[in-house]
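FAQ: What does the model actually see?

It sees only this:
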Amino acid sequence: MNTIPEIKKNMEAKMDQSIAAFKVNLSKIRTGRASPGALDTVHVDYYGSSVPISQVANVSLLDARTLSVQPWEKGMGPKIEKAIRDSDLGLNPASMGDLIRVPMPLMSEERRKEMTKIVRHEGESAKIAVRNLRRDANDHVKKLVKDKSVSEDDQKRSEADIQKITDRHIADIDQLVHAKEQDILAV
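And it is asked to produce this:
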């Protein structure tokens, strides 16, 4: 049987995981600037296996709007270029010897607004996950009261603590959403 501190610790750890997953999702959403993470979802055929570009090439920034992809093996250039072109990212890579330049197109105002909606939706999903964890923790505490393991006063105190932890995580999510929106809308 869990104790109230164990329930709170477990809930907080899961909320931290939810926020970490949310940050990963945010990093995949494109802003106006180039980011090496933009190609994380692109896979290339490498000796019969589909692997992320980062496992067959070095992806870095040339400037604010251009990525450079440096394949580690000679014959991979054309395959990587094709994988980037065929991806749903709308990118048009250009080969310069061994180096592949990937210019990031400017985002239209309409596309920026669309991206902020996606960010808000991701934020809302993360908040729902956090609230579900709060509900589960409160249910566990209620079960302890029902089993007469803890008093109702302990339940009230723990529910207040659980709410504080939840509020802090929701505020973190709001802050991340706001920062990402600023990043997207900055021209």
